Amino acid sequence: WMFFWNNDRLDLSNIFVTVNSLSQLYYITAKLGPMNTKSTSSILTHIVSKTFAGIGVLDLLHNTSAAFFKGVEPSMTVKVLTGLGFAGASAMSDWIFGGCLVYDLVALSVGQSGSWRNLLGAYAAGSAAIVTAKNLARPPYSGADSGYRQTATEEIQDRV
User: Fold this and answer.
1) Please, what is the end-to-end C-alpha distance for the chain in angstroms?
2) Residue 149 forms beta bridges with which residues?
3) 32 touches 147 (CB < 8 A)
4) What does residue 46 show for φ and ψ, rounded to 5 degrees?
5) Taking a C-beta distance cutoff of 8 angstroms, is the pair 82, 129 a contact?
6) Less CB within 10 Å around the terminal CB: N or C of the chain?
7) What is the DSSP letter of 72?
């Protein structure tokens, strides 16, 4: 996608950004198994996968707006859907992906001006509060119903 971006073909680069971002999101929501908190490789897989997906969200929003809506103020519908989308995603996220969503909102707000910038900043604070409250109330990496499992140490797994 970067070749098209550098050649000012943002419309074509957006196709690749969309495919990449959606595939990353699909992987972390449907294919990535529970984190084994006793396995370094499992922890790193979750960190890398969820961080790539989080940055993919930023890429998708930034590239789409730069390709098709440059210089256009966001409508009320865009503002509402942005808030609802990030709030919903934050409510379903663990610390890793949720932190990336907050980062995305902060990064988007830095590149804006006026009331849209302030609103994105407020969304970032709200998303941070949602991620924090959700993950403190129900820690994602412990408990029988968390979906995460603790198994033998990585050294034992490596010998099998």
Assistant:
1) 41
2) 36
3) no
4) -65, -45
5) no
6) C
7) P
Residue with tokens 């890793």: 96
Contact 25, 71 (CB under 8 A): no
Residue whose structure tokens are 């989308």? 85
Angstrom CA distances, 123 to 18, 80, 138, stand at 23, 10, 22
Buried b / exposed e over 70-101, threshold 16 CB at 10 Å, is eeeebeeeebeebbeebeebbeebbbbbbbbb
Q: What percentage of residues in the chain have a pLDDT greater than 90?
A: 55
What is the DSSP-derived secondary structure letter of residue 73?
Answer: P
Q: 12-39, pLDDT tens digit by residue?
A: 888 999 999 999 999 999 999 888 888 8
Give the C-alpha separation, 72 to 35, whole Å. Answer: 41
* Residue 96 near residue 50, CB atoms below 8 Å: yes
Spatial separation of the C-alpha atoms in residues 96 and 148, rounded to whole Å: 14
Model confidence, pTM:
0.83
What is the distance between the alpha carbons of residues 45 and 40, in angstroms, rounded to a whole number?
8
